[in-house]
Design a protein that fits this description.
With about 120 residues, the chain is mainly beta. About 0% of the residues lie in helices and about 60% in strands. About 30% of the residues are buried.
């Protein structure tokens, strides 16, 4: 009922930049939160940045000042601008939304398929 399409991952040198994009589509009535998580090999999935309607944005301490999340409420898209990338930012990045669909009374969490970000020289 809800599809998330991610784009923008790739290989970048340390200090470089990448921009990730995620578009949500389907029978969407309302989206409460749009955000990005990441999972590095052997580690748990962690929140990178999120934007919550009426609640502002929050970032992982490790990306503050380097990453910026931006959301387009009309288009149901969320971007993550990543600057000053470090090797430790290497991970699969996942888009996540808390969405309410038509006919539903609850907000449910939905995940994108993930996009690989590799920071290496």
């Amino acid at each position: 009922q809800v599809q998330l399409v991610e784009s923008g991952g790739g290989l970048v040198q340390p200090g470089g930049s990448l921009r990730l994009s995620c578009a949500a589509s389907g029978s969407i009535l309302s989206i409460k939160t749009m955000g990005w998580y990441r999972q590095a090999p052997g580690k748990q999935r962690e929140l990178v940045a999120a934007d919550t309607s009426g609640g502002g944005t929050n970032y992982a301490d490790s990306v503050k000042g380097r990453f910026t999340i931006s959301r387009d409420f009309a288009k149901n898209t969320v971007d993550l601008q990543m600057n000053s990338l470090k090797p430790e930012d290497t991970a699969v990045y996942y888009c996540n939304v808390e969405v309410r669909t038509y006919g539903s009374i609850k907000y449910l969490s939905r995940w994108g398929q993930g996009t690989q970000v590799t920071v290496s020289s």
